Amino acid sequence: MKKITTLFSLALVALLALNAQAQESMLGKEMKDLPKMKDANNKGKKASFADFKDAKGFVLVFTCNHCPFSVAYEDRLIALDKKFKSKGYPVIAVNPNDPAQYPSDGYKAMVSRAKNKGFTFPYLLDPTSNVARAYKASRTPHVYILQKQGQKYKIVYVGAIDDSARDESKISEKYVETAIANLLKGKKPSKNYTRAIGCSIKMRNQ
Hints:
Layout: H1 2-24, E1 30-31, E2 37-38, E3 46-47, E4 57-62, H2 68-84, E5 91-95, H3 107-117, E6 123-125, H4 130-135, E7 139-140, E8 142-149, E9 152-159, H5 175-184, E10 199-200
């Protein structure tokens, strides 16, 4: 039994390492605009990066309704959007989860959540989970900061929002806030990768 437990632990560590490598490999990649997706925070109108004409980049976050980590970060995402949207880095939230696995992640529930929390940013439905797959996202929340470069968007940060997923009062490093502050000064993020903490994304079947 002990041997089986040890093998399982080693396999889990290897899997986590592979996931980390996949996500870190996204740094520096140039992405196309998002496909137009239904915005639960704007009466179902479809939206993408192109709707933000004056944006210098984006804080793209894969999130959902049911995950306690996502819920814990909602107020912090609102604060980030309010602080940086006017400076050119708005938040865009995307829900890639399969509602067949978690009904509370369905579109109608997204509409209710956006309204009840007072989201200040788009909350988009990824109906195939293919946007999450394209970014190799694995957690909710999982953040990607993108810098606009012509018609493409370069990934300059991947990972967590800060270093205290459960308790906002214990934050010592605000990864996303610091990265955007660097970008606004014309510098590269001083830290461009951290490990995202959260629930696994419940991908839809392809």
